[in-house]
Amino acid sequence: GGGIPDGSYQLEVFAPWGSGGMLAPGPVPVTLTGSSPITVNVQFLAAPKHVVGTVRREDGSPLPNVRVNAVAQGETAWVTTTTAGDGSYRLDLRPGRWEVSLAAPEGTVADWLYGQPPHLLDFTPITDTTEVTVTLPFTVTTATAHVIGQVRRADGRLPTPGSVYVEVRNSAGFGNGVVVSGDGSFDVPLVAGLYQVHLYSSDPEWGSPPLSRITVRTGRVRNLGTLTLIRRTVHIRGRVTRHDTGEGIGGIPIHAWARNGRSWWSTTTTPDGQYDLAVTPGQWNVGPAVQGTAFTAQVPSRRVVGLQAGQVITGVDFVLVETDARLEGRLVDEEGKPFTRIHGWAYIREGTSEDPTLGAPVRRGRFSLSVPSGTPYWAGVWLPPGMPYTVEGEQQVTLNPGEERTITITVRPLRTLIVGRFQKPADLQVGSEGGRVQGIVYATSGQNGAWQSTRIRHDGSYVLPVAAGCWNVGYQLEGDDYVSNPYPDTRVCLEERQVYQLDWTLVPAETSIEGIVYDPMSSPLPGAWAWAEGTTDRLHTGAASGDDGRFSIPVPEGTYVVGASLPADYGYIQPAFQTVTATAGASAFVTLTFRQANATIVGQLSLNGVSGQPAFYNASVWGWSDEGTYAVTAARYDGTFSLPVTRGSTWRLGAVYEYHDLGAAGSGRLVYRTTQDYIVRVGETDVVTQDMELFLEAESLPDPVTVVIEPDEMAVVTLEDGSQVIIPPGALSTEGSVTLMITPVAAGLAETMNSHPVGFAYALFAFDEEGRQITGPFRRNVLLRFRYEERWLGRRFSARRLRPAYFSTTNNAWTYPERYAVDTHRRIVTLSVDHFTTFALVATDLQEPPRLWDVYLPVVARE
After folding, report:
1. Is the N or the C terminus of the chain less surrounded, counting Cβ atoms within 10 Å?
2. Which CATH number fits the domain that encloses residue 136?
């Protein structure tokens, strides 16, 4: 009577989401005969792996009521517990790989902060059910400052209770947030530093104003005064129709999001396909969210500019193409048995293209894809990062209209190993005499975004299972004692069942660069970002100045260029670079003083081959000097610009402009850029004039996209240029649906003497169901994959000097992630991140002969 045909079956039972502390029994054989139901008793087993520890403040005092979360790699298993009164906790986990992190209890405001990435625990193989207990302590930072204020609507009234959320975070997602109280007040506990204030309103009539960056000092209360919500008076209207009949399509979500990710609004089309979306004045990307429907969008988004209050913008229409066939699939092991432990991502791609056309989550080894008929596809599956399995190839399919077809894809264990040991320069094994190294070794491959990692053992050894193929290998070390290697140019190509030995020699950070930062009035400047870059290697590291303006940067022996930066809101010009040498016996000391701009470079932008002047809505001008200082500014709508600089220096200028033709058949996102550096000598005059001509680039800007994903499922989002965002199940810290916006950008990127953006940048932002931005750190790291072309580098740069980076608006400087790989053979850059922001590829130096070693230190903030 249950619709299951008679026969013999294997019954599998799974624990629900959030119950990774239970171990499911193996498959139970059942036989069905006739229509009579049968009863099967199933008993879950206690999890055999245990994690214990204590959460403490930096002074050693225990911290109760802290959520300790463990998320399984590649599964929808999540275990959480809360620390007891003495700060202790215990997690019971089943075999597998887990990532453990901390969070404040839901609905509370913590007086502490924790910004470290999740800690990886490896309890593989999954068949190992022996009892194991590991100890994992945590140390959090106590909040020593507060940001307070009031929120009001523009009409002077209080906002609707619970509708406004205030977050104060830096570009790496570190910070805190609170719901505004019923009386309109808020109080955000923090530590000293530079932050961006974000205001999120879920009220359908009121939006958030643009807010500035702020400096927070230890023991101080920063009062922001009254923040005023803006009425949503700009209306964007359009219609969503079918490609074949022109009929309207109802129930399609329409999203509008700002390029900087600070605002997001949505609505749903009416039964005849119409929509009316109210937003605040500004520039918006608008697009339909079609995943989970039977349609794909011809153009995923359009740019809309509405600068006047009360403005109505019509004709922002979208055409959808119906997917009229269905591809079902299931994963099996090497014996052909169903493989149900995996939650991955199924995809189809066309012809010789490596980029997926459509995709859908794999849930417990099964997937279902709605696809257009009549086109030959290759179908395959991606596995989440860290899974101890690999997929055997793809299958080619062509479906007829209305056809449903089922395919099977084989999954097998990883049987190839990369093994090795970390050694001190004197060839002493790590752990033989102190100085224990902690961290991870990781490897990435071009095969479906594969990423594997493992923790370094107590004795300095590691074992990293991978699939056969070519891998780029690197490592990330924890602490200040040794230097990490973020540029994994160690490429190895391995055969099935091969064991490859790869040892590493550690580079100790045995000295430091000390210094003090002053403002233009010679007062100590807290919160400035002081950085150091090696002159004979690729070391780039930094630290924030404390309340007394002092900083300390641990480094290996060597010669370094040292500088400092602040948010552009301060209006200061950076200190001139200084070159120092630090030795093991003597640290280096520098004094860095910010300056006031005392001159201006002005000019007019023009487009080659274009008659008349368009509205320069998205044009920016950058410049850097021979002293190492730099600046970036937005051009005015008439193409004029004004760049603040200092006298007595030589500046190199350039510009970029994003042109969005709403009348074009496609998205019409063209990029104009200067093809030379304009060299301007600024003498003793106040104003210097330099006009610049911009030329059309061969590549147009990829379309922005918006997708809605479920946080307990894997998701892979592919842009039209092949760039991808790979989100493992359980990575995002929310329970409801997540709306992800990805906007490729060309304008607004700073170019400096030693950091030159190439290609496009990608602004990534995610929002929960309440409209609040998900800033991070994530429960699990997310992978980003960017492609690059050799012609982007030209003769000036080398692919060896290519690095992924994000421009920190709170530091006003390029910041480099700690885990990434550059595959120069496939021209793919892969990075692992724990927060969303704007990421770009940056050439970090002029082309030069290869170095003997490339190093990088983790970012360390000190007070």
Report:
1. N
2. 2.60.40.1120
CA dist 300 and 240 (Å) reads 12
The answer to whether the CB of 449 falls within 8 A of the CB of 483 is no
Mark whether 182 and 239 lie in a shared domain: no
- Residue 699 tokens read as 């590549």
**One-letter amino acid of 75:** E
Query: Confidence class of residue 421 from pLDDT cuts 50, 70 and 90?
Result: very high
The pLDDT, as a whole number, for residue 863 is: 32
Beta bridge partners of 231: 206
Structural domain total, the chain = 8
Q: State the amino acid at position 516 in one-letter form.
A: I
DSSP letters for 709-768: E-TTS-EEEE-TTS-EEEE-TT-SS-SS-EEEEEEEE-TT----SS-EEEEEEEEEEEE-
Assign 793 to helix, strand or coil: helix
Q: Out of 83, 108, 142, pick the residue that ends a domain.
A: 142
Is the separation of the CB atoms in 367 and 381 below 8 Å?
yes
Residues pairing with 461 in the sheet: 421
Residues in the chain: 863
Nearest Cα neighbor of 104 from 12, 178, 191 is 178
Q: pTM of this prediction?
A: 0.84
C-alpha–C-alpha distance, residues 409 and 407, integer Å: 7
Question: Nearest-CA neighbor of 482 among 442, 534, 422?
Answer: 422
Q: Mind spelling out the 3-state secondary structure of 117-137?
A: CCEEEEECCCCCCCCEEEECC
Question: What average pLDDT score do residues 487-505 get?
Answer: 86
CA separation for the pair 42, 30 (Å, rounded): 12
Task: Pick the closest to residue 727 from 766, 759, 773 (CA basis).
Answer: 766
The domain boundary residue, chosen from 115, 142, 169: 142
For 456, the token pair is: 């370094």
Instruction: Give the end-to-end CA distance of the chain in Å, rounded to a whole number.
Output: 70
Tell whether 578 is covered by a domain: yes
Among 51, 111, 107, 54, CA closest to 85: 54
Q: Return d(Cα 665, Cα 644) in angstroms, integer.
A: 39
Q: What CA–CA distances, in Å, run from 20 to 24, 77, 81, 103, 131?
A: 9, 5, 12, 18, 15
Count of Cβ atoms closer than 10 Å to residue 771 Cβ: 18
Confirm if 302 and 277 have CB atoms less than 8 A apart.
no
Neighbours of 2 (CB within 10 A): 6
What is the pLDDT, as a whole number, of residue 329?
A: 95
* C-beta of residue 420 within 8 angstroms of C-beta of residue 504: yes
Q: By the 8 A CB rule, do 135 and 68 touch?
A: no
d(CA 583, CA 149): 47
Q: 204-243 burial, b if ≥16 CB within 10 A, otherwise e? A: eebbbeeeebbbbbeeeebebeebbbbbbbbebebbbbee
In tens, the pLDDT along 125-151 reads 877 889 999 999 999 999 999 999 999
Do both 733 and 685 map to the same domain?
no
Mean pLDDT along residues 91-108:
87
Phi-psi region of 431 (alpha: psi -120 to 50; beta: other; left: phi over 0): left
Tokens 């050439």 appear where?
843
The backbone torsions φ and ψ at residue 791, rounded to the nearest 5 degrees and listed phi first, read: -70, -20
Residue type, 709: I
Give me the CATH number covering residue 813.
2.60.220.30
Structural domain boundaries enclosing 457: 416-505
Beta bridge partners of 655: 621
- For residues 597 and 645, what is the distance between their CA atoms, to the nearest angstrom? 5
